[in-house]
Every structure is written in structure tokens, then in C-alpha cells.
Amino acid sequence: MNVLIVEDTKELAVELIDYLDKSGYVCKWVATCEEALEEVSVNQYDALLLDLGLPDGSGFDVLKSVRKAKSKMAVIVITARGELDDKINGLDLGADDYLTKPFALTELGARLYAVIRRIHGFTVNELDIHGFKIRLQDYKVSYQENAVALTKKEFDIFQYLVLNKNRVITRLQLTEHVWGDVLEVSSDSNFIDVHVRNLRKKLDKHASIEWFETVRNVGYRIIS
Amino acid sequence: MKLKNKISIFSAVIRLLLLIIMWFTLSFVIKKVAYKNIENSMVEKRDKFVKNLNTSEINAFIERNDSTELYVSFSNLHSEFLQLYRSNNAMRSKDYFVDETRIVENESNEYRVLYHHFTYKNTHYVLEIGERLSEVNELLDKFHLVILLLLTATLIVSHFAQSVFIDYLLKPFQKIIDTKINLINEPELFDHSKVHTTTSDFIVLDDGLNQMMDRIQEQFKKEKQFIANVSHELLTPVSVLQNRLENLLNNESINDEGVDKIVVSLRNLDTLKRIINNLLLISRIENHQYSNFEPIDFQSLISELLADLEDRIEMKQLRVSNTVKEHFVFEGNKTLMHILIYNIVFNAIKFTPNGGSVSVSDSFEEGLYSISISDTGKGMTETQLSQIFNRFMKINLEDEGQGLGLSIVSSIANLHKIAIKVSSELNVGTTFRLIFQEVKK
């Protein structure tokens, strides 16, 4: 998967590339509108991470020209809160998803995966982790044809951990993913722990899950 | 009351007074003129009579020499009379007029009577010449009516003419009010085009308003720019730090102690991020940057919201009742209304001990719709209650929030013109009541 990162803050781009590289994406980074426009016209990309506030213009211009070219590129707009009046505006202009800075890298990973899957119509509609099959289209999990009944939140947590497998996911990242960027929720991680405990109990009934690790003081990790 | 109406009422009252004065004055003057006319004709008759008297009639009258005898002559229809008699009283040299009622052949009539005293051959005589007043009075009555009608007509016509004129004159003023003053709270919608008028006062007013709004708009733009800058400038480094720490966390070479420190740092960063975001949210609300208002269905909003918080409710074993049932159509920003109610419900859940209860209900009282959120939580003291909407106000120190939740609630409520009433009793519970201004059912 080729991803073009359009981001004027180099330090941020470095972190994005670091994360995406490890997740198996091939990244190219540019910092201006001009470079971005040139890059999308020359090379084929599967996805575009687009910052809106660029030194030589707005990321929207890049978005418009990408959409004009009818390219089948997944576009995720990255912006600081306050630059857009509403989430709808970004999506209206043809972005496939929208992330506000600062966001968790794992959140970016999950969104990118979902968007690419949707846009490029992958046949892979199932994630497999040690025999557990996660059906992405209808939110079902099964183990050897036996359904594992999960609540929506448990499914969300499981899918999120699997999409970011081999990475430590902090309670904070999980909380934000499950409840969204809700104000004043703060870091009350107990709730996440309860959901994870229930999830593990349900999975454990079907098979041993030593690959589902609790990382002391930090959060959780699923090892592939 | 509108200026236009005030002017209309004032001028109508003045005109009515004027009409009454005119009517009385005219009546008085016309009566005077009419009487003067009659009197003049009576004086003429007197002169004629006295002249004739000397030659013929008086002789006959004197020959009879009867002191009681009267010489009376009436016209056929009793419209006038003439009477002559001797007088023993002292003579009055001047003629005078008196209004008197005389009965002539069983018919009582009002007459204007001229008394004329004269001496003829050492004898005093009194000559009375009368003129009936009923015709004159009838005429005067008709005159009064005509005058009244004329004056009333003038009053009405001039009132309408004036209304039209005032309307025309105040049109620019009305336009300034409708298109400018009424939109003063929405600087972005302000119409800067000049209002066409030749009235210098309105030009000054219009120019003044335009200048003022220009300045406000400029300020507004700057503030917006500032907020955008702050959000960008502060959130970008936070973003870099967060993502770097997240990557670092997955670096195998970092030991447990390092991991712990990274996690604590991430938590602090999260707090920082939330504070910035919340302050931004407040300032964006207060700058009216949330313009997209749509009808909001509170029933579904509240049940969705409670479903979202279900796990918390279950874990604390709270009893939650949701009896929102009224159909109230409200135009508002959906995102903000969600945040508003979410924050209140979230607080209710947070501050209610295990096994307590939280209830959400709505009602129409005196035509006003309201939603109440009550809990059986720890409640607040009067002092705490008075400070809950202040920024960075925390009721207790163990609270993990940043003390901005209710500040946001208050900003959103202001934007939507919703009044919030909070009542609370320590260790009993708290009730938040949202009272909506719009009356629609």
C-alpha cells in the first residue's frame, strides 16, 4: 500500500512514517501543495494523508484536484480543530475520513485500514487472529464456526487491538477510540479495563489467549 | 412603541384638540356675526319706524292718550314684531338688545329684542323691535354641523397624509433597524451597504453603525484568526509529542521504568489536549462559529446518549429513568446540544454513588418546554452551586476532569438561549433544569 503524506510539520511526518512503515505501508512525504499536486499526478497512491494548513495553500486545493482526476485514492484529512467549522465540511469536499490533531497513531491506523478497504473494495473482509475470525462487514466474531457473542464495544476493542497487533495500545487510546473524543471523559481507564476483562473472558472460553497481553500500567497488546 | 406610532398618536391628539378649539371659536364667531346682522337690520327698522312715526302713526297713538295702551304689530308668521308704549320710568338714552321669550298667540318664541327709548313731546316712549331667533339658530346649527364635518374631514385626511409621509420619512430608519440593528449579534451577516436617505440624522446613524460593525467584524475576524492560530500552533507540537511518545512506547529497548514515564507523559499530554480543545470549543461557541442549526429530536438524542453511557450506568448499578415524552421542535446545533446534555448527564452519573438513581424527564410549564436531569448524588453547597459554571472550577479535588464541562454547558445554553436552573442539596442530590425559550409544540 502506497501512502502519500502531505504535512508541513516535519517532526510529525517522521512519526507518521515511523508508525506506518511498521504497519506495512510504503510512505512518501511532501510538505507543500505544489509538491503534493506533482506527486499525485506522477505516481499512483492508494491513500493520501492530507494536512489542511500548508505553507503554500490549503490542502483542500489538493483534495479538489485529486477528486477532479477521478482517482480512486483514499483521502484522510488531518487538521487542527478550529480550521473546519464542522466535520461534515471536510467530508463534503470529498475526504473519506477526517482526523483532528492530535490523534493517536493507532487511531490513524484503524481509520486508514477501514478507508482503504472500503475504497479499494478488498476481498479481505475478515481478520484472522489465532483462529478467531473477525468479520468486518457485520461486526461478528467466530472461532471455528462457533460465534463469539461480543457487545459492540467489545468488538470495537478487539478489532482495534487486532488492527494494531504487535503494538502496545494504551488505555487512553482505547478509551478515545471506543467513546470518541468526548469531552470531560478524561482518562477514566477503569471502564476500558472492565470491557477488556469481559472480552478476554469470552474469547478464553473458545481457546487459550496468551497472545492477548496486558502490559502493566500501560494497556494491552495482541501478538500475532 | 414605535417612533412612527408615537408621532401619529401625538399628532392625532394635537389635531383633535385643535379641532375642538376651532369648532368652538368658529361657532362663537358665526353666532356673533349672525346676531350683529339681525341687530343691524333691527336698527334699520327702528330708524324707518321712528321716521314714519313722527308723521302718521304716533299721532293716532297719542290721540288715544292712554298710558296702558300698547301699539303692537306682528308680521304674519310672527317672525318679527314691533311694540310701542309709553313709559313712566326714567329714560335710557342708549338702545340695548335683550334675548327674550315672548308668547304670541299661544306660541312661545325666542326673540332678539331691541329696546329704544325716546321722548316725543315731553312723553317717554319705549319702542321694542323683535326678531325671531329660531331661524337664525337653525341656520347656526346647520353651520355647526357643516363646520364639524369639514373639520373632521380635514382631520382624517391630514392624519392619513401625515401617516403616509411619516412612513416615507422614516423608511430609511426602519430599514436601518430591520437590516442592521436587528442583526447586530451576527456580525458576519451584517449588511454594510448604505441606506439611501437624504435625512442627515439617518445618514449619521447609518454611517456610525457601519463603522462600528466594521470594527467589530475586524475584531471578530482577528479573534477567529487568533483561535485558529492558537489551535494550530499549540496542537501541532502536542500532536508531535503524542505521536512520538506512542512510537517510543513500542520501542523494545525501553525498560519498564521508561515505559511508565512515557505513559504518564501521554496522560498529561491528553489533559493538555483536552484543555486546549475545550477552551477552543468555548471560544468558538461564544464567537458564534457554530451556525448550522437543525431541528433536534430530544427523545432520540437522550436515549442514544444514555445507551452510550450504559456501561457506566451498569457498573455503578444506577437506576436510570428516562421519561422524555413531549414532542418539542427545537432548532439547534446537534453536536453542541449533544455535548450540553452529555456533560450534565455525565456529571450526574459521575457524582452519584453506586446504587443511586439518575432521571431525565421533560415537561411543558406555562408554555415553556424544559428538560430536567436529576440525580441522588452528593449534591453541592450554596457556595459551590454559585461557582459551578466558572472555568476551571472543580467541586472536589479528586475530580479527574478539568473543570470546563459546565463552563461549556453554560456557553452552549447561552448560544441557544436556554436558561439553566440548578438546585442542589448536600448528600441528597442535584437537579439541572434546561428551560427552552421557544414555544412550539
UniProtKB/TrEMBL annotation, chain A:
Keywords: DNA-binding, Phosphoprotein, Transcription, Transcription regulation, Two-component regulatory system
InterPro entries linked: CheY-like_superfamily, OmpR/PhoB-type_DNA-bd, Sig_transdc_resp-reg_receiver, WalR-like, WH-like_DNA-bd_sf
DNA-binding region, residue range(s): 124-224
A single GO cellular-component term on record: cytosol
Domain Response regulatory: 2-116
Presence of the UniProt keyword Glycoprotein in the record: no
GO molecular function, one term: phosphorelay response regulator activity
Residues with the 4-aspartylphosphate modification: D51
Single GO BP term: regulation of DNA-templated transcription
OmpR/PhoB-type domain boundaries: 124-224
SMART domains reported in the protein's UniProt record: REC (SM00448), Trans_reg_C (SM00862)
Gene3D superfamilies (UniProt xref): 3.40.50.2300, 6.10.250.690, Winged helix-like DNA-binding domain superfamily/Winged helix DNA-binding domain
Protein name: DNA-binding response OmpR family regulator
